[in-house]
Amino acid sequence: MKQRSSSRTPQALRDIRSMNVVAIHPQDQDGDELLAQLRRIGCKVQMVWPAQDSLPEATDIVFLAVRPETLCTTLPWLDARGAPPVIPVVAYENPIIIEAVMQLGAYCVVPSPVRSFGLLTAIAVTLNQHRNRQTMERYVRRVEEKLAEQRQIQRAKTILMETRSLSERDAYELLRSQAMTKREPIESIADAIIKAHEVLGFR
Predict the structure, then answer these.
(1) pLDDT tens digits for range 135-183
(2) Which residues of 154-192 are buried (b: 16+ CB within 10 A; e: fewer)?
């Protein structure tokens, strides 16, 4: 059987070893083991307890102990744009814990008691999925922006068609020629026409 190429593995491991990790976890046996294993991997780790309203700058990934103390705590950074992915550390499986894990948007969990096995895999999977999600979100934003621009152009064409008795093709050509003359994007010309129409009340 032909083996699959592992050329990406060294770079992935280097990425993990250079990460800044925040572990929101009490300094108990699990916390000590988590800290030791993360340092053994090569991560730069900062232990935090209790959970804070903000994270240190340049945090790449967060380990979060899912306990009663964190379940009843609001974490504003979770909803911030560009928030780092979270790996929950869970000691129990019950509906409340499962719901909390789902709300965190976690891709995998680390069970308690913490062990060395599975920790590196959890980090690698979480980072890969998080990057895939970021790529998809950027694509969706670009599509939404493009659709918004097309709607603006269409609205500007409609205004020109109504105010200058132009065909749709001629209205678009007028927009395009103005964009070329002024050396501006056609979307900017469309936006200017729409604003002028709204301010001056052309009919």
Answers:
(1) 999 999 999 999 999 999 999 999 999 888 889 999 999 999 999 998 9
(2) eebbebbbeeeeeeeeebbebbeebbeeeeeebbebbbe
